[in-house]
Amino acid sequence: MQAANIKQDVNVATIRNMIESRMDFADWTSWIAPLSFEISDNVLVLVAQNQFSADYISGVYGALLRDVASQFDLDVKLIVRGVVVAQPTKIANDNNTQSYAPAVETNAPVAFDAFIASDENAFVLSAAKKVASEFVSFSPLFIYGASGCGKSLLVNCIKSESKNAILMSGGQFVSEFARALHDRTVFAFKDFCRNCDTFILDDVQALSGKNATMDEFLQLVMDLRAAGKNVVLTSTCAPSALTGFDRRVQSLLASGLVADVTAPNADVKREMLIRAGVNKNVANAIANRIANDGHMIAGVANKIKTYAELMGGDVNLDVAEHLLSDTLEKFKTPIAMVKSMCEKLGVAYDAICGAGRSRALVLARQIIMVVLKNSTRLSLAEIGTYVGNRDHASVLYAIRQIEKLQQTDLVLSAQINQLIAECK
Questions:
Q1: Fold of 112-260
Q2: What pLDDT, in 10s, does the model give residues 175-197?
């Protein structure tokens, strides 16, 4: 009897080691390691902590567990607090009896004309139109850019213009996969995602750190590509910059066509406001004073339209200025720029405009001249008037001196570039 128990213990330890060797460490630690392993009557009994864990493990790791157990001539049974859970073997091949429908409704149709393209975004727009019209060789199309650049709008256009496309957000894919595991409709969910000509995932970064969902998604991408279908992905950053994604995943995501979407420029912002019903004169005046963010622009347009509807009449520039006082960026006058830079450089404004010639003061004065040259349209003579009425030749000399220093002093160069960005 004692010898039999020793053999059983050895088998359990061997099985655990074999399963661990075939799994990602994070998955093993999160899902399988907490299980209690027992061997009874040629059955490997796994005791889960709760029903959700049992369902998840059955759906995701059932095939692996059965394969390992079969090498010891064992069957597999999952138990939750003394209750036997349906066998993985009964779930795995029951496709015909499963059904799945997404819990979240898709967005209303959107035409490509809704996306206002700049010269910088012409390439990604052309790629998106091609994906919507035919099967492409550059799948997956990976579109990235900061929030408010129009990524979601672009993929909604692709969805609307495609014959048979599925669009999910990254968060929706995660929750729908978890729901399918819980409802034991994993294979129906898989079939649903593959039964399309174009699969679109918006905000792929939502999968970060969710290993099981990531594995399912990667298999989906590979299956769709193998079938000659289109895959479109969006993210806030390029594949190589995604956090929580290993090199294997980043490589697959970058294996098609990677294209960036740039933030709306002044012309795009102006057109967006006009299309939204904002008075043309008002749109022209405030476009440059709104952040380069499509969401922010839409919010400004909605506020103006709502005010006009509730209060009656057109919204002129004075009303818009008051209405959007918390949103519009203030105009930065050259004097305001100089005073702001004086504070950051630790010198007094009066000293900059005075005759002082200390080394630190001269350097600060020259830096301010360079920043004004690169962040405004002021002439050299006009720049001189804002730093103590220096003449054209003095300003030119100062700029040349700083430009020489920037070639060797990286810290100074970075400081100047930061001041320029803040003044624009």
A1: Rossmann fold (3.40.50)
A2: 999 888 888 888 889 889 999 99
